[in-house]
Amino acid sequence: YKLRKFVDELPNMPRIKGYNLINGVPVSRSLKIGMFQKKWKFHGQLPATAVFAYGTSRRSATVPGPTIEALHGVDLYLSWRNYLPSKHILPWDPTIPTAIPSTKIGIPTVVHLHGGIHEPDSDGNSQSWFTARFNQVGPTWTKRKYHYYNIQQPGTLWYHDHAMGLTRVNLLAGLIGAYIIRQPDIEVPLRLPYDEEFDRPLIVFDRSFYTNGSLFMNSTGNNPTIHPQWQPEYFGDAIIVNGKAWPYMIVRQRKYRFRIINASNARFFKFYFLNNLTFIHVASDSAYHQWPVILKELLLAPSEIADVVIDFSKSNSYSVILANDAPYPYPAGDPVNEANSKVMKFIIKPYKYEIDMLRIPEQLIKYPTPTSSPVSQIRYIAMYEYTSTIDEPTHLYINGKPYEAPVTEKPNVGTSEIWYVINLTEDNHPLHIHLGLFSVLEQTELVKNKLDEFKECMIKKNDAKKCKVSKYTRGKKVEVPAHERGWKNVFKIMPGFVTKIVVRFSFIHSNASYPFDATNEPGYVYHCHILDHEDNAMMRPLKLLK
Ligand code: C2O
Prior knowledge:
Elements: E1 15-17, E2 20-22, E3 25-27, E4 29-40, E5 49-55, E6 67-71, E7 76-82, E8 111-114, E9 145-148, E10 155-161, H1 167-172, E11 176-182, H2 184-187, E12 199-209, E13 215-216, E14 238-241, E15 244-245, E16 248-251, E17 255-262, E18 269-273, E19 279-284, E20 287-295, E21 298-300, E22 305-311, E23 319-324, E24 342-348, E25 375-387, E26 393-398, E27 416-423, E28 429-433, E29 437-445, H3 451-461, H4 469-472, E30 490-493, E31 497-504, E32 524-528, H5 531-534, E33 539-542
Parallel strand pairs: 1-6, 4-7, 6-11, 12-17, 16-24, 25-27
Antiparallel strand pairs: 2-3, 4-5, 7-9, 8-10, 10-11, 12-13, 12-14, 14-15, 17-22, 18-21, 18-23, 19-20, 19-22, 23-24, 25-26, 27-31, 28-30, 28-32, 29-31, 32-33
The structure holds CU-O-CU linkage.
CU-O-CU linkage is lined by residues 112, 114, 160, 162, 303, 432, 434, 525, 527, 529.
């Protein structure tokens, strides 16, 4: 099939306030959001597609789900409800360590608020899954109603499914949505676009479809004797923004703010405008920068967020295409083609009385610099890929260990740690850490002609110190891009490099202690955010200690 581009208008997902107002005063709120199977139109020319969608009712459920707008300091209690049928719309791989090794008893789901700083039993632990009407629950499940404190820094988060071994299929089916924490007293004075009309999430992902409209995902693995279905990366032909394939948006000649979330399984995007318009990068994953950074291109890994301002009054044409130029897999895969090199189109309609009072401030928000806190622990985190005799990946591990192996990372609450993340694979892996925020200090290449020697030692001994990591960490240093030097919860770990990060297990805006017990079960996790890797099994537990 061939779908025409730019025929559907960009949807603005429904917005739900994460608080109540009583006489104008915001107070906490309880919400119910369900997961429903329904039909969704991804494109005017394509028959409707069966999807899993979040919403307050089946009728209002959307892909992506509603944008939740929380207020800093106001609690939100959310009960996520599973109303899904017993059979998944996508293929199942029983050889992946999955929540339930059968499709007979319902679809396990559990929601993680990505970028959120909250208690372990509201964090959406992969083993805290539940099926429809809580008929079955996972081994670490404790409660129906999650408590989001929202006392972290203002910024953009997103919520998505996190069920053990099913994350890639549950997100592919549509279980994705944006979540914004606002703090008007410090954000409004910045005079960035802040109203619904001019401040819009853009959730971008790739999907393939059958001609009948249903989602296409390979049902045969590259290594069928080992994994009947699992493949190391899912890539789709069509680029979807806010639930429409290659949409268009009509804009005025003024500044807009877009909170761009890469919700793909495995695709990186290198965004740029065909007419050279620039991105003014004001924040990344859930935190503002100290100052804006102007960019011509913007590389986003799966799950990374870019909060950018685009000033359409600076455009030299009345329509502009947002394009993509990232090879897939990234960085050593295929170049983009006609279809996946285009993302969406902006059509600029001049408006006679346009007065844009918004500005780009020189200073945004200054948080304490990463190195100011004492470091309590140094760790080495190595990323491995294991292949079969036919040289196809069978699984990926962190530190040579499966998820089920006893927890090895046990940071103390309120401390900072240095992690040296060693990427021994050929792909770039977006590392995501729950609870903690981190900042990247250094990226050093492993000595090229000794890479194999080091890899061999690591595979044998699985101990960076015993393998004399410092002897190999002597290649060139690559600067961390200006817009990625702030606080992040995802970072692109380059292949053949050691990336040094400082992770903080407390708030970045104050030393206030967590208002919950972070040492509780079931703890947290950290993982590669390529969903197909995370599922098999590039994820490890993270246990906080007092
Ligand atoms: Cu966005 Cu553990 O995930």
